[in-house]
Amino acid sequence: MISRGSGTGSNDAVTAARADGGGAGLAVRDVVVRYAKAPGGLWRRTRATTVAVDHVSLDVDQGEIVALLGPSGCGKSSLLRAVAGLEPLADGTVTWDDGDLTGVPVHRRQFGLMFQDGQLFPHRDAGRNVAYGLEAQHVPAPERAERVAGLLELVGLAGYERRRVATLSGGERQRVALARALAPRPRLLLLDEPLSALDRRLRERLAAEVRRVLKETGTTALFVTHDHDEAFAVADRVGVMSGGRLLQVAPPEELREKPATAEVAEFLGP
Amino acid sequence: MFVGLFFAWPVAMLVARGFVADGALDLTGFADVLGRPRTWRLVGLTLAQSFLGTGFALVAGLPVAFLLYRRTFPGRGLLRGLVTVPFVLPTVVVGVAFRSLFVPDGALGFLGLEETLGGIVVALVFFNLAVVVRTVGGLWERLDPRTEQAAAALGASPGRVWWTVTLPSLAPALVSAASVVFLFCATAFGVVMVLGGARYGTVETEIWVRTTQFLDLRSAAVLSILQLVVVATALAVSARTRSRREAALHLVSDRTSAVPLRRSRGDVAAVAATAAVVGGLILLPLGGLALRSFRGPDGRLGLANYAALGTTGERGALTVTVWEALGNSLRTAAWACAIALVVGGLVALLASRRPRGTGARRAVSLLDGLFMLPLGVSAVTVGFGFLVTLDQPLGVEYDLRTSPALVPIAQAVVAVPLVTRTVLPVLRAIDPRLREVAGTLGAGPWAVLRTVDLPLAARSLGLAVGFAFAVSLGEFGATSFLVRPQSETLPVVIFRLIGRPGAENYGMALAASVVLAALTAVVMMLAERLRGDHGGGEF
């Protein structure tokens, strides 16, 4: 459940820190995320939990793109959801520009999020999907339309405003989702396997495009994927995760040349 | 809060009345009532009627479900609508329709079904066919046909495939439909009152008779408790299978697996069975009712019966004219519908949340079940409970029994579960990540509700309005207890007309039934329009 109230104070602190220009960005410290086991059993008393994220620390500087790479079930998506404020932290802190985000509800964090399957609003056309975050910010209509057109053009879908979501291809949907996530100018964009549902060729092309769009807009991004090539193509630095732990974070070349442990080397392969 | 005040409390007081006399625990009321052979005969009849009704509804519903959900053909949508009509028809109308067939000079008079168990069972099957067809068909439509194909490829004959693969896959829906139908049969009131006459009765009608004719509230309370036990058992079975069905749904494909009609033996048999069921069970009584309504008291065809609707009947049988009663019905139903929509919508919203904590999750599932209860507990019990408790609601010195708000509230209690069951599946089907995305785009919890849940659930809300309105229009059990003479609704008036002698009154009852049926059908058709093709729901 989202709690209101306690958010305001820290939120002000965050905004203040942001006003003086390039701050420290995202800092994740000793974060632990736990899930209840067997969520299906309604009437069974289950206290057992599994640790999805196990004492992870990670920094993302402003303007930087960091990828989290690991096999499915390694905890990378849970970490992403915890940063977004969608999962409660069992331990540790998440801060932005040194302002603690504990208790700041999802919609006040100004963090964008993009899912694997886009999750476009089926009852809105492409343009109004992109406009959603701007409406929440009460951006006046003419400016909104201009921003929407600009963003659609940025992702290569100029003139798609009135298209119904159901008529879009998988790649087009992900582009709309990216434009929608970028529209409110998030301080940090979280991408959860944004290209995994697409076929290989499209994925390769879009990976390069995502990097271009993120760099052009100067967006700070945390990117989760299980695909090595995708991670290396998009990110400035790549973190390798396994079993809920972050094994190593380094630029792609360094990761390939000097893996910190045998496990990292084995995961990355030859 | 609403259910607490207007459902749980009246029922609890009712139970207390059965156990407590003069401020002391007293079980003699039980011993007294349970000692009467009449009680056991009534229980026996109730159970017989329920088992027979359920059994025949299942047998008749299966081929129809197959044809309407596994095969495509022109006119399928129309046929689906036609099969649904009986379910929303006011019970009194159903009763009148079958009565007009079973009376000695009726189309089926030679069968001698008037005022017999057989006649009532036929009417109950008519009434509940839609439940079976929709519940079973909804699952059947989504069963992955490849499982059956795999069985056939392993050398199983069509009959064997049916017994070993299809039927077991359908089992959850079958059990769920059976328990709901059983419930409806056990608590059927209007149908039994109209068709059973003086010779035939069930626990439900006995409660009514005890209360309104003999003012024997104590026996009525004991009987209500007896019925609650039966209903609770059926609901528990239903809930168990429902949770199993929800688990089973994961094995099922998203897209529909219906194929065009073929000339195979199975298909021809299904078409024949459906034609027999729809023709004999649905068209015959409805057509018969419409036809007879045009035959005036003097036996000639014409609009005499409809012209009489502006009067209070032969020898002043009524206190209001039928048209006034129609106005009362519409007003009451509109209020009941509004109340049910607000309460049912809120419950659906709450029950659709999946909170993190185990305790909270349990509370949500409990709430879900609590609001299903009024569906099972008979309307008569609700009406009776109101009568017993609401002279001083929660100790407040305000006699709610004389308030004009009473009937709409009672009808709303009956309609709330329908609203909840219609909206809930749609809300549950919304991917929680859609709300999460909205949150990250800066929408607060209220904005998410307004911009995501509401637009997506809007169509199902429309259907819920239709359901609630139709059910309130036809509600008879609780209303007949609570309504005041000046504000009698159409179903109550119809029942009154049937009970009075005179060909003119009978003709008026037929005409009024046609009016009520037409009104309900129009409301449901508008609502079905809103629903479109997807989003099954429960009924």
Description:
The complex is a heterodimer of chains A (270) and B (539). By secondary structure, chain A is an alpha/beta fold. Chain A folds into two domains: 7-14 and 24-110 and 186-268, P-loop containing nucleotide triphosphate hydrolases (Rossmann fold); 120-183, no CATH class. Chain A is built from nine helices and ten strands. Chain A has a six-stranded mixed beta sheet with strand order 6-7-8-3-9-10, sandwiched between helices. A four-stranded antiparallel beta sheet of chain A has the order 2-1-4-5. In chain A, a hairpin with a 2-residue loop joins strand 9 and strand 10. In chain A, helix 3 crosses helix 4 and helix 4 (141-154) packs across helix 5 (170-182). The longest helix of chain A has 17 residues, at 200-216. Chain A is globular and about 55 Å long. The model of chain A is unreliable at 1-21 and 38-46 (pLDDT under 50). Chain B is mainly α. Chain B is 74% helix and 1% strand. In chain B, the strands form two sheets. In chain B, strands 1-2 form a two-stranded antiparallel ribbon. In chain B, strand 1 (20-21) and strand 2 form a beta hairpin. The model of chain B is unreliable at 247-252, 393-397 and 533-539 (pLDDT under 50). Chains A and B meet through strand 6 and helix 3 of A and helix 15, helix 18 and helix 19 of B.
